[in-house]
Amino acid sequence: MKRAFLVVLDSFGIGALPDATTFGDEGANTLASVAASSALCIPYMQRMGLGNIEGVSCLAPTPAPIAAYGRALERSAGKDTTIGHWEIAGIYSAQSLPTYPNGFPRDVIEAFSAATGRGVLCNLPYSGTDVIRDYGEEHCKTGDLIVYTSADSVFQIAAHEDVVPVEQLYEYCRMARRILVGAHAIGRVIARPFVGEKGKYTRTGNRRDFSLEPPAKTLLNAVSEGKQDCIAIGKISDIFAGSGVTEEIHTHNNAEGTAALIEQLGRDFCGLCFVNLVDFDSQYGHRRDVDGYAKALSTFDAALPAVLSGMREDDLLIITADHGCDPGYTKTTDHTREYTPILVYGKQTKAVDLGTRATFADTGATVAEWLGLSFRGVGSSFLHEIQ
Questions:
Q1: Considering only CA atoms, which of 373, 377, 384 is closest in space to residue 272?
Q2: Does the structure show a pLDDT above 90 at 62?
């Protein structure tokens, strides 16, 4: 009964890609920025070979890694969550999803306002914490919805939980998702509920993402079509619009996501457990909090002994990422175009250097082969290299 645990440390890049300049991200390096913090303590990821990966010079290599290690290029035209996860799962995206640096066009906003019966505030690219600071009071007085975007392909709706109940906000997001099609088929509509009073507004853990359906078959579809379990933890089900998921476990933060991962290790199932740990990105990367990012990585690392000890003979663990979000990068607060790490551990695998993979999809292809599936997507499995 083979199982695969695929863990995405959301935004944990390890150095700028060769084309990073095209994306405005020359010199970005999430790992290097975090490694400069005295708060970083990740002995288990280092034992797995994180410091041995090609191009990583900010961590000392270990002489005897316990896992296979390497890095991956993002082949697709993007640096966002949706494109990154889709590529991990086997899809190449030749074009980036639409973005709106000047806000959404009038016809989109008017259609959304008509559907919800509420007015719209902001409609600009904005920091999520700044937008509720600047528009929260007006929203609470009028009931108008705060709509904003970023450098990513996102339509974000912020609302106070006392003004718009969370389930109602989710329904507004579904309305927006139905409107945002065709030329405006953005990657994600995101619910951003918040609480508090003027000057003390804070976002809650009730965020939800409403994504486009993947345009092609993914690893998740292959797993479920093969009559195996596909367990999605965190925002994985949201990212794939539920396609291919047989069980979803929504979590509010890294702690809940890590606990859910460890719980699944103790369950009997056959197939894939796909995990996204979002705090690295949402709480620390975008907020340019180097020490916070370092502490979050250290906390995850401290949980690795429980993860590794919970693995069975037929288990495979892969730790990777979907893009970068360098907390030390001063040019922007957006995602950064970076290599992502690959750390592979299993009782039937060996510690080898996987080098630089041509696409994130090699990871998904490897998981598929491990589970006995014919699916490879646009990737090439490296299973033969680690067995």
A1: 373
A2: yes
Nearest to 301 by CA among 315, 283, 280: 280
Exposure on the CB side of residue 330, measured as CA atoms within 13 A? 0
CB contact burial 62-88 (16+ within 10 A = b; e otherwise): beebebbbbbbbbbbebbbbbbbbbbb
Helix (H) or strand (E) segment spanning residue 172: helix 166-179
Q: Compute the distance between CA of residue 159 and CA of residue 178 in angstroms, rounded to an integer.
A: 19
Q: Tell me: the pLDDT tens digits for 222-264? A: 999 999 999 999 999 999 999 999 999 999 999 999 999 999 9
Residue in this structure with the two tokens 């995602």, named with its chain if needed: 335
pLDDT digits (tens, 9 = 90+) for 20-56: 999 999 999 999 999 999 999 999 999 999 999 999 9
Structural domains for the chain: 3-95+213-386 (3.40.720.10), 106-211 (3.30.70.1250)
**What are the two backbone dihedrals, phi and then psi, of residue 131, each rounded to the nearest 5 degrees?**
-70, -35
pLDDT for res 87:
98
